[in-house]
Amino acid sequence: QECDWLGFGTFSPDGTRVLTVSDVMGTAHLWDLQGGPVGETMRHNHDMLSAVFSRDSTRVLTRSLDQSARMWDSRGRAIGEPMRHDNVVYSANFSPDGTRVLTASADGTARLWDAEGRPVGEPMRHTNDVNSAVFSPDGTRVLTASPDGTA
User: Fold this and answer.
1) How far apart are CA 131 and CA 128, in angstroms?
2) H-helix or E-strand containing 79?
3) Is 23 helix (H, G, I), strand (E, B) or coil?
4) What is the distance of C-alpha 49 from the center of its chain?
5) 8-61 residue pLDDT tens
6) What is residue 30's three-state secondary structure?
7) Contacts of 138 (CB under 8 A, 6+ apart)
8) Which of 32, 46, 76, 89 could bond to 39 as cystine, CB 3.0-4.6 Å?
């Protein structure tokens, strides 16, 4: 299928769908393997920077220049409210078991969110941007990295 301003795409981990992102349009779309659309268009208020599937392929996580990340179900319907920061979100990842989301932002924080997009605990702070944040393979720890020279 054709998409306006296609920025990137990826297969779902279970191999049943494709996720495409029109980065400058701020939209993402789910497709079946025959190219037919699945569900609703996922939208942000600004350019979309990335989109990933959860390991079990039941959710999608997007991030945008609108200073937020969002979770969507397997039909493209929003789950909870946008996960907001005070600046651009540089990374957004699902935990290995899919029960948490981890975001990193130019606002100097990394944040944990629950499966409904609600904040968990206090932000993890650096004195500069947080360029990336990842879960350990077992999901029990978080690693953040910043140009302030610390991890």
Assistant:
1) 9
2) strand 78-84
3) helix
4) 9
5) 789 999 999 999 988 667 889 999 998 899 999 999 988 888 899 999 999 999
6) strand
7) 96
8) 76
Report the residue count for the chain: 151
Structure tokens at 11: 């297969």
Q: Is the four-CA dihedral 146, 144, 23, 47 of positive or negative sign?
A: negative
Q: What is the pTM of this model?
A: 0.90
Query: CA nearest 63: which of 79, 50, 75?
Result: 50
Instruction: Locate 104 and state its tokens.
Output: 């990193």
Structure tokens belonging to residue 103: 């975001």
Q: Are 69 and 52 in contact (CB under 8 A)?
A: no
Percent of the chain that is helix, strand, coil (3-state, to 5):
0, 55, 45
Question: CB neighbours (10 Å) of residue 73?
Answer: 15
